[in-house]
Write a structure and sequence with these properties.
The protein has about 260 residues and is α/β, with parallel strands linked by helices. About 30% of the residues lie in helices and about 20% in strands. It is built from seven helices and eleven strands. The strands form two sheets. It has a seven-stranded parallel β-sheet, sandwiched between helices. Strand 8, helix 5 and strand 9 form a beta-alpha-beta unit. It starts with a strand and ends with a strand. The model has no long low-confidence stretch (mean pLDDT about 90).
Length: about 260
């Protein structure tokens, strides 16, 4: 792949979004193995700062994507592809990157949002996955692969495996009477379960710790200290936090 660059397009998120961390990790792994890869952000100077990284970053206005380059696009941008008029601000950046000769790869971490924004009109079929410039799909689980290959007959998706940074999410055997969870995932279910436990007098001597707006290092330390991690995840490709909690020695209960 001489003179080939691989660009991972990432939203400019300051908030903690696990899928973005995975994009950064992919770029690091590619560079460590002799490929030329970088994250693309829209805003000049932007870098995700809620986890430690020295990942190579490029910016939309300062790069030119060529025919032998690859652009890896998160599946979330399918909504812009389907409805450009309703997403005018996002569409300008989208068209700048998508309307280039680079080969496109859709990285699907959330397959169950594939048809979000689709029309119920039986004659209208529009999806970024079917665009002629898209040469491959990547997914993070067998379930995602089966789902997309069933939804789009004849399409093949490459399954990759998420990994855990064990320098950060490592086992700790000494635990507090502490229960942690991610409140942004199915919060109504979290409220019900924790409320039932409280009313039944089952967690009187436990501390409940929501993991919210925390850095990666802070998240790992909470998991290391906690005896239990409650997993209230939603429909997604692969839920990394429960796996990270297991690596930290938590008993994981939930979905």
């Amino acid at each position: 792949m001489e003179n080939t660059n691989i660009y991972y397009w990432s939203p400019d998120y300051h908030s903690t979004v696990g899928g973005v961390k995975i994009l950064y990790r992919h770029v690091d792994i590619l560079n460590d193995n002799g490929f030329s890869a970088s994250i693309i952000h829209k805003k000049a100077g932007f870098r995700c700062d809620w986890f430690d990284n020295t990942t190579r970053i490029s910016y939309v206005r300062k790069i030119t994507l060529r025919e032998n380059d690859y652009l890896v696009i998160p599946e979330k941008y399918d909504s812009v592809y389907k409805n450009p008029k309703r997403r005018r601000k996002a569409f300008k950046t989208f068209s700048t990157l998508f309307d280039t000769p680079a080969k496109k790869i859709i990285f699907v971490q959330g397959p169950y949002s594939t048809f979000k924004g689709c029309s119920l009109d039986e004659d209208e079929i529009k999806s970024i996955y079917l665009d002629k410039s898209v040469v491959a799909l990547m997914v993070v689980s067998d379930d995602s692969k089966n789902y997309l290959e069933y939804a789009f007959p004849g399409m093949q998706a490459a399954r990759i495996h998420n990994s855990i940074n064990q320098d950060i999410f490592s086992y700790q055997g000494e635990k507090k009477k502490q229960i942690c969870f991610m409140p942004n995932k199915n919060p109504d279910d979290a409220l019900q379960v924790i409320s039932i436990l409280k009313h039944r007098g089952r967690i009187n001597d436990f501390t409940i710790v929501p993991i919210e707006n925390r850095s990666e290092l802070e998240t790992a330390q909470i998991m290391k200290d906690s005896l239990f991690f409650l997993s209230f995840g939603y429909q997604e490709g692969f839920s990394l936090p429960p796996a990270e909690a297991m690596a930290c020695g938590c008993i994981v209960v939930g979905y």
